Structure formats: C-alpha cells, structure tokens
Amino acid sequence: MTKEVLVSISGLQFAEETGGEPVEVITSADYYKKNGKHYIIYDEVAEGFTEQTRNIIKLDGCMLDITKRGVSNVHMMFEKDKKNVTYYYTPYGSLLIGIDATRLDVKEDEDSLTVTVDYALEVNYEHLADCTIVMKVQSKGTGEFRI
Prior knowledge:
Layout: E1 4-15, E2 19-34, E3 37-45, E4 52-60, E5 63-69, E6 74-79, E7 83-90, E8 93-108, E9 112-123, E10 126-139
Antiparallel strand pairs: 1-2, 1-10, 2-3, 3-4, 4-5, 5-6, 7-8, 8-9, 9-10
C-alpha cells in the first residue's frame, strides 16, 4: 500500500429509539506499516470549530486502536471479547464510554485494507447502542475508490 491513501469509515448504530443511524466519513490519510501494525493518520475539522482533530488509527490482527487529539480527545480500543472503558473528552464535557467488541475482521490486500468491527457501546455504564464500523483504506491512484 502507498503512503497516501483514501479512507472510508462508515458506522451504524442500532439504538432502540432511533433504529439504524448511518454515519460516514471519506478522507485522505497517510498510511504506513511498522512492526506488523498498520497506521492510518488523518485530520478532521468539526463543524463550528477552527481547530482540527488528529486521528491516529493503529491496527493489528486482534486490536483496533483509535486516538483522537484536538477538539475532542479519546483513546478507544476495540478488542474482540474484551470490554475497554475510557473517557471521551468533548468541548461540551466528558463521557465515560465502554466498548465491548464482539467481532473484529481484517482483510488485507496489496493496495487495500478492510476492517469490520461489531461492538456494544455504553455511556456511564448504561448500554446505549449496538454498533458496526466498516473502515476501508485504499492506496491513492489505484483506480476507483470502492466503498
């Protein structure tokens, strides 16, 4: 895979009150692989803020690690059959979140990665939603970006 990549991150939350609520981000990112781990780094701008948030995604075969620094700050770890708890700091206050991943699938090709994660999301120890994240990473210049 090349250093310059395109990333699609789509998620779906299944909360009883809302049904399915899809969210998707497509952006350019930097990619590298070191010591068997994949690293994807990109900046995002939140609506209403001028400061950017740096996203650092680390991935190996059994863990997805997402760190956000900037307007929002969090370090989330998705490990199959393991619950991780962390604080999510936002401009509006902090939330205690729990992430209990039930599935973590990684498919790696020469010019792409596809990661699928199913997890239960808790806020302040209360179940909020069952969620799915699908992240696709593809080298720039390898043809049409398939989402």
